[in-house]
């Protein structure tokens, strides 16, 4: 397996320092956007976490340790906990975030683009990390949400073995 650290695949460090938290500070405009879309702080909080994560990572993933930081940044009451949405609410939140960041969720298309670019570049490059980086660039360039790392890694390893 290719080491994720050797690629440009966005990931969080195991230990997040204070400086890293600053990326998650929503702007006033982002906080207002979330308040317009969700009726409670418990629903605004995961919407903002997803937004900031998409802006940095290209997908909805964030470390638990930034939840309280974001809550304080938008001045939600102490003890406000994110209400992890299910069903219709989570799909609505994901749709709102993707619309705002200009990303489309189409994992089949993202994988098709990644695999095509990996196959094309495998003739000139033989390091899986390089192939994954090229695939990431093409998927992002197409405005698509990133697929998980493991399918990209499998595609790259298959192409290198050929």
Textual characterization of the structure:
The protein has two domains: 4-101, no CATH class; 107-161, no CATH class. It has helices at residues 18-21, 28-37, 41-57, 67-73, 87-101, 107-122, 128-141, 149-161. With 162 residues, the protein is an all-alpha fold. The mean pLDDT is 83.
The overall pLDDT, averaged over residues, is 83
Report the span from N to C terminus. Answer: 16 Å
Principal-axes shape call: elongated
Kindly report the oligomeric state of this protein.
single chain
* Helix-strand makeup class: mainly alpha
Query: Please, how many helices?
Result: 8
If you compute it from the alpha carbons, what radius of gyration comes out, rounded to the nearest whole angstrom?
18 Å
Low-confidence stretches: none
**What is the helix/strand order?**
HHHHHHHH
What is the count of structural domains?
2
Q: What share of the residues lie within helices?
A: 55-70%
Domain DUF4158: 1-157
Protein name: DUF4158 domain-containing protein
List the helices and strands and how they pair.
Elements: H1 18-21, H2 28-37, H3 41-57, H4 67-73, H5 87-101, H6 107-122, H7 128-141, H8 149-161
Keywords:
single chain, 162 residues, mainly alpha, 2 domains, 8 helices, 59% helix, elongated
Compose a concise summary of this entry.
This is DUF4158 domain-containing protein. With 162 residues, the protein is an all-alpha fold.
């Amino acid at each position: 397996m290719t080491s994720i650290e050797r690629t440009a695949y966005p990931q969080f460090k195991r230990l997040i320092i204070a400086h890293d938290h600053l990326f998650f500070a929503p702007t006033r405009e982002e906080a207002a956007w979330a308040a317009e879309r969700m009726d409670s702080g418990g629903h605004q909080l995961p919407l903002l976490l997803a937004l900031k994560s998409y802006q940095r990572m290209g997908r909805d993933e964030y470390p638990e340790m930034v939840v309280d930081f974001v809550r304080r940044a938008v001045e939600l009451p102490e003890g406000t906990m994110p209400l992890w949405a299910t069903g219709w609410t989570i799909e609505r939140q994901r749709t709102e975030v993707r619309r705002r960041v200009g990303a489309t969720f189409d994992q089949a298309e993202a994988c098709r683009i990644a695999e095509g670019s990996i196959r094309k570049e495998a003739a000139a490059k033989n390091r899986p990390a390089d192939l994954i980086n090229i695939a990431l660039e093409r998927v992002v360039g197409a405005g698509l949400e990133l697929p998980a790392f493991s399918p990209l890694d499998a595609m790259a390893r298959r192409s290198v073995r050929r």
